[in-house]
Amino acid sequence: MEGTRELKTERLVLRRYRMEDAVELYEKFGSDPEMYRYSGWNPYASVQMAEMTIQDFIGNYEKTDFYGWAVVYRGELVGTIGAYDYDAGRGQIETGYSIARSFWGRGFAAEALRCVLLYLTEQEGIHTVTAWCASENTGSMKTMLKAGMKLTHTEKNGLEAEGKTYDKLYFAYPAE
What we know:
This protein has 176 residues and is of the alpha+beta class. The chain has helices at residues 22-30, 47-60, 108-123, 138-146; strands spanning 7-8, 12-15, 67-73, 76-87, 92-99, 128-134, 150-161, 164-173. The chain has one domain (7-173): Gcn5-related N-acetyltransferase (GNAT) (Aminopeptidase, 3-Layer(aba) Sandwich). The protein contains 4 helices and 8 strands; from the N terminus they run ββααβββαβαββ. The protein has an 8-stranded mixed beta sheet, sandwiched between helices.
């Protein structure tokens, strides 16, 4: 396993985070409540938190089972994607992604996710990649399906975020 290495798609570059990404991550993700509406998780809530998150990522890049990318389009950071909690015994890892709201509707999430799914399964030898989303997050659900993931099951009232409860939809790749 190689861990996080630069990946390219037709339109995107998936690269390692840099400290200079902190302000942009805060402005595009941390200061927009829509970006963490369904997760309740906001690692970019301030510039300082964004810097700490990036520093943590940079510190983990030496690990061969750590995956964290900044998604770049025409030189501009437009999203984030990563894979976490690798379980070697099961050959499984979980992925998550986010595209800045001003770039929604352009297919960037599905393009980046498809690239990462292929990298993790074909290059890194990981058998299964999983992900989840809130049932009301139709954009994320469509992204996962478009990238080739399959809905495996639903956990009723399985997710609480921002004071609301949602059904939690689980997806897997490859679709078996």
